Amino acid sequence: MHLLVCAIGIALLGALAWFDIVHRRLPDRLVGAVAVLYFVGAAVDKAPPVFVAMHVGVAAAAFLVGALLFAAGVLAGGDVKFAAAVFLWAGTEFAVPTLVLISLAGLVVTLVALAAGWLARRSPQGGLTRVVAPWTASRGIPYGVAISLGALPIIAIRTLAGGMAS
Hints:
mainly alpha
């Protein structure tokens, strides 16, 4: 069952990253599924309610910080909800490593978006422009990709290492 929860989690992360690259939005149903999957994994592992409550608290704190960043125009609403769902998985034990992973992935995604814009401006209309166009920073930074990349090891650790109960 752990492998199935992990596989579904990875599929959801991949779908969210792809959707953000192509459409620059994160569907609420997919984001909600990431959150619901945490509770499924916690139930499978018979996680004590106190641990689940701690995870919910971390997710609520992440949502609050994200809402402030949204109000400041730094993050989009979908990114805020997605980050909260990911921090639900992280809990207190992995909150800081998750933040670091997402931040590093965000740096890489931002650099890719800037490079894609540079390439799109310098190449003639054609194949290369079509390849890099979804990544260009002029469309906004697809931060859902960074959140997905940061979440990947956390979901794998929680599901495959039996860490849902901590």
